[in-house]
Amino acid sequence: MTKSLPRFALLVLTLSLSVLPVTAQRLFVGLEDASLVTRSSDLAGFPDVSWTNHYPFEVNGAAATPEGVIYLCNGPFTTRLYTATLDDEPEYVATVSVDIHGMGYGGGKLYGFSSYTSPMGIYEINPTTGQATLAVSTASQGFRFFGLDCNAADGLLYGYTEYGVGGLYSIDPVSGEMVRFVSYPPGVNGQGRALAVGNNTVYLLSTRGDEDEPCFAYDLDQGVGGSWVPFTNPYPTHHNTGGACWIPPSGDVPDQGDAFSPRPRLRVSGPNPVLAGTTLTGEALATGVLRIDLFDSAGRWVTTLTGGSAPDRGGQVAWDGTDGAGRRVSAGSYLARLRDAGDAGRVRLLVVR
């Protein structure tokens, strides 16, 4: 029996999901069994969600692009890579040069975790040729991120491991820095080999559905040490590994527009997670000084950063990890917003102490 979780955590996550355009986004899942259908949900009515059936397919890992293209992989030691959509069945693309389980897509790159390659770790995969290049080694920690995905809100990978010091981690694909957010979900055996990230929330599928275990969600705005929230398992009677991915709303796809009307953007060009400080790079429509407002996870203003002239719609602003009064901020999740830039000018920062 799963232990009860704080009502506040469930309320926050439920409210955050209820205001989203549920018809435009899907959580996609599949298990390592070719006879089982893949499934998806718009998460309406969370945590009591319903699931839609799609094509049967064996899934070891899954990842989705902002345009809704799904990458799927399977094979125990020789991994085959496929592309699909929710409506179109998978088509073979290439054989990956290393074994791959969980996958994630972010920053225009496809990532996958390899357990049987030396060194064990997270690899960047060329989706055309299948060639894989090591991005982050996990051999020294003993981590096996069979569940893996990228978070569009902060550009970090998130992985779940049953090995080493188990639990949910953020992984910087550039520096390799890892931060442990939380341990196993309560009342389960710790296994979870299908993971997706959307709405700044991690969705973890249980792999022992024959024990009537639910799936779990973790709102990353809680920061480190928050609570898992259970929701309906799409495979309540199966015990297997699998894969999952988040298909974002179509509005999340960058509008190419024309060359004379670029969309403003903001990205983290320094460390994230943030220990002592970081750098933000902004692209604005107008010339002048960049102004970036920072807010905490409760929506409270923290500070305003200014600097970096933008005659070419670009500039950098440094943040030293302090608030408007010069005090160091506490650990947690923060939202950086490029003033007057809308959704295209928002990024998440994770501060660790």
Key phrases:
Immunoglobulin-like; disordered N terminus; Neuraminidase; mainly beta; about 350 residues; globular; four-stranded antiparallel beta sheet; about 5% helix; 2 domains; 1 helix
Give a short overview.
With 353 residues, the protein is mostly beta strands.
* Strand composition percent: 35-45%
CATH class category name of the largest domain: Mainly Beta
Query: What is the global morphology?
Result: globular
Give unreliable regions as ranges: 1-8, 14-23, 251-263
Strand-and-helix sequence, N→C? HEEEEEEEEEEEEEEEEEEEEEEEEEEE
Tally the beta strands.
27
| Number of structural domains | 2
Question: Taking Cα atoms only, what radius of gyration do you get, to the nearest Å?
Answer: 20 Å
Spatially, the strands of the biggest sheet line up as 3-2-1-20
The CATH superfamily of the largest domain appears as: TolB, C-terminal domain
CATH architecture title of the largest domain:
6 Propeller
Number of helices: 1
CATH topology of the largest domain: Neuraminidase
**Share of residues in helices:** under 10%
Q: For the terminal residues, how far apart are their CA atoms?
A: 35 Å
| Helix/strand structural class | mainly beta
Average predicted confidence as pLDDT = 83
Topology summary:
Layout: H1 7-18, E1 26-31, E2 37-41, E3 52-56, E4 61-64, E5 70-74, E6 80-84, E7 91-95, E8 103-106, E9 109-114, E10 121-125, E11 132-137, E12 147-150, E13 157-161, E14 167-171, E15 178-182, E16 194-198, E17 201-205, E18 215-219, E19 229-231, E20 242-247, E21 265-268, E22 278-283, E23 289-296, E24 301-309, E25 315-319, E26 332-338, E27 346-351
Antiparallel strand pairs: 1-2, 1-20, 2-3, 4-5, 5-6, 6-7, 8-9, 9-10, 10-11, 12-13, 13-14, 14-15, 16-17, 17-18, 18-19, 21-22, 22-25, 23-24, 23-26, 26-27
